[in-house]
């Protein structure tokens, strides 16, 4: 919701079935805040190779360095950072940022705190 209030274009990005993602977002009442849902299934690929993140940046017409990926999986944020995106990790599932991944630009225990930290980054 904070991203919508800040007028930041926001999308969901999955490598799974987009209908499944849409259904989950609808149940959580979040899809209304999104401009769209994208799935790497469209290019028959899985995250985290850089080409997957490059593809979605093209789909949303946003340069990688001006695009942030917010996730609760460090491997996903790792892939995004390696592809040149801003990485934002909510550590609520993993408890910490693993030492074996590219460090995210921001991290916090909860997604709302991650979003606050993203919005506080210099433009």
Automatic annotation (TrEMBL):
Entry keyword annotation includes Hydrolase: yes
Recorded GO MF terms: hydrolase activity
UniProt keyword terms in alphabetical order: Hydrolase
Keyword Hydrolase assigned: yes
InterPro entries xrefs: HAD-like_sf, HAD_sf, S-2-haloacid_dehalogenase
SUPFAM superfamilies in alphabetical order: HAD-like
Entry protein name: Uncharacterized protein
The species this protein was found in: Pseudonocardia broussonetiae
């Amino acid at each position: 919701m904070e991203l919508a209030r800040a007028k930041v274009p926001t999308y969901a990005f999955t490598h799974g079935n987009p209908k499944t993602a849409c259904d989950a977002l609808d149940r959580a009442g979040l899809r209304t805040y999104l401009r769209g849902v994208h799935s790497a299934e469209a290019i028959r690929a899985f995250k985290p190779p850089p080409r997957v993140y490059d593809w979605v940046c093209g789909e949303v017409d946003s340069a990688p360095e001006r695009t942030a990926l917010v996730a609760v999986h460090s491997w996903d944020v790792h892939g995004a950072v390696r592809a040149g995106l801003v990485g934002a990790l909510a550590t609520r599932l993993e408890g910490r940022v693993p030492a074996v991944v590219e460090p995210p630009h921001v991290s916090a225990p909860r997604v709302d705190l991650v979003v606050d930290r993203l919005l506080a980054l210099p433009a």
